[in-house]
Design a protein that fits this description.
The structure holds 2 protein chains of 2 kinds. Chain A contains 7 helices and no strands. Chain A is mostly helical. Among the domains of chain A are: 79 residues, NADH-ubiquinone/plastoquinone oxidoreductase chain 6, subunit NuoJ (Four Helix Bundle (Hemerythrin (Met), subunit A)), CATH 1.20.120; 31 residues. The radius of gyration of chain A is 21 Å and the shape is extended. By secondary structure, chain B is mainly α. The radius of gyration of chain B is 18 Å and the shape is elongated. Classes of the chains: A mainly alpha, B mainly alpha. Chains A and B meet through helix 1, helix 2, helix 3, helix 4 and helix 6 of A and helix 1, helix 2 and helix 3 of B.
Chain lengths: 173, 103
């Protein structure tokens, strides 16, 4: 019972945060809504006993990424009105059509599966607890090649960000 | 036996979250908010991975989540650097003004 209650509570918080991200006018409010979503997701991961992922979610997403977002929002300024003019002719109709298509696809898939996914693929008997040890034992054996390439990606991203910040139109230092 | 939440619930929540993210991509013009919606969609995928990992009793899904997290972080770093450098030239955060590479 308490599992269902906590799941529903967290799901409501996650969707509330997501709607704030989409519909709020002030970019700072959007960022706060995103923080709400990310932290609720981290707590949801905790209830799914993925403890390491929950901690990384809080550190990386709610910590680093959101700080970066807020920095850029403060630099760019928040008092800009969003323009409503259409640059493509039938833009709004296109969006409405796409939204209905996507929503229809979503409901269709969930109706066809009939919330019986558990029966199609039998659930494992045992529960796994995503502790750092268990994830590391997989990460440094089976997944070591993706791990190394991801480290290269991080270095490239850092170099790219630095070279973008000190572009040719600015004098270095 | 204590009540386990069925995996379908997590998958449905992730699908709704992904839908909201793509909706935001389509209806907003502000570059920053579109970036946040990309984050929402990535998080929906992460939730799917963790749900599948819990369902099948394997850690591979959680390792994949770790990789998605790293890719998302580097994407945000590069994307925000691009936004800042664009903004220093034309002082607008609307995607409609960024038509420089239009054919």
């Amino acid at each position: 019972m308490i599992q269902i209650g906590s799941f529903l509570f967290l799901a409501i918080l996650i969707l509330l945060g997501a709607s704030i991200v989409i519909f709020a006018k002030n970019p700072v409010h959007n960022a706060i809504g995103l923080v709400l979503t990310l932290i609720s997701l981290a707590v949801l991961y905790l209830t799914m006993s993925a403890t390491f992922i929950a901690m990384v979610q809080i550190l990386v997403y709610a910590g680093a990424v959101m700080t970066l977002f807020l920095f850029v929002i403060m630099m760019i300024g928040v008092d800009k009105e969003e323009e409503r003019r259409e640059s493509i002719k039938v833009q709004s109709f296109l969006v409405v059509g796409l939204v209905f298509l996507l929503f229809g696809l979503l409901t269709y898939v969930s109706l066809v599966s009939g919330f019986k996914w558990d029966l199609l693929f039998p659930q494992a008997e045992y529960a796994v607890i995503g502790s750092p040890e268990s994830i590391a034992s997989l990460l440094f054996t089976e997944w070591v090649l993706p791990f190394e390439s991801v480290s290269i990606l991080l270095i490239v991203a850092t170099a790219g960000a630095i070279s973008l910040a000190y572009g040719k139109n600015r004098n270095l230092g | 036996m204590d009540m386990q939440i069925p995996t379908d619930w997590y998958l449905t929540l992730a699908a709704i979250l992904f839908f909201l993210g793509s909706l935001g991509i389509m209806i907003r013009r502000n570059v920053l908010i579109m970036f946040m919606c990309i984050e929402l969609m990535l998080n929906a995928v992460n939730l799917t991975f963790v749900a599948a990992s819990r369902h099948f009793g394997s850690f591979d899904g959680q390792v994949a989540v770790l990789f998605i997290l790293v890719v998302a972080a580097s994407e945000v770093v590069v994307g925000l650097a691009i936004i800042v450098s664009i903004f220093s030239k034309r002082s607008s955060a609307s995607v409609d003004d960024l038509s420089l590479s239009k054919g």
